Amino acid sequence: MFLEFTIKGKVVAKQSMKIGRYGNYTPREVKDYVSLVQKSFLAKYPMWTYRYYEDIPLKVYIAVHKSIPKSYNKRKTKEASVNYLRPTSKPDCDNIAKGICDALNGLAYPDDRQIVSLTVNKYYTEYEDYVNVRIESAVMDDDDQAILGVGDYYGK
User: Taking the model in full, what pTM does it have?
Assistant: First the structure.
């Protein structure tokens, strides 16, 4: 079983707490994005309970799709549309993953410490910005163990 959903809109990276005149605070942009991630998940899975994913290792795949910059010439636009050219601009992949995984804590899974495999890819798209997220179990079945030779290594 896996969970897959789309977050429409520009991706916002997780930022550290800011220090203000009256103490520490999280930037409004980050709070709004956390809310958008949670609403996007609940729109697809309104009755989901994270108990299914309680105490099992998880794999998370995040695909960030950014619109092709208008400043690109025809050659660069063509290369970007076929994924030959990929975005290397901010935000960083690790900050994108941190923001999304933290937003799904207690919603899609009990705690993000269960994530043992994380893949983040950034692509250009001819459409509006969006992010695809897929969460699945990382528990290996017998076929996976046979391919990796896990049973042989541990003497089983």
Answer: 0.84
pLDDT band at 36 (very low <50, low <70, confident <90, very high): very high
Domain segments of the chain as ranges: 2-153
pLDDT at residue number 142: 54
Query: pLDDT, tens digit, for every residue of 80-115?
Result: 999 899 999 889 999 999 999 999 999 999 999 999
The residues near 118 (Cβ < 8 Å, ≥ 6 apart) are 59, 60, 62, 97, 101
Q: What angle do CA 67, 69, 71 make, to 5 degrees?
A: 165
Confidence bin at 55 (pLDDT 50/70/90): confident
Topology (CATH) of 2-153: 60s Ribosomal Protein L30; Chain: A; (3.30.1330)
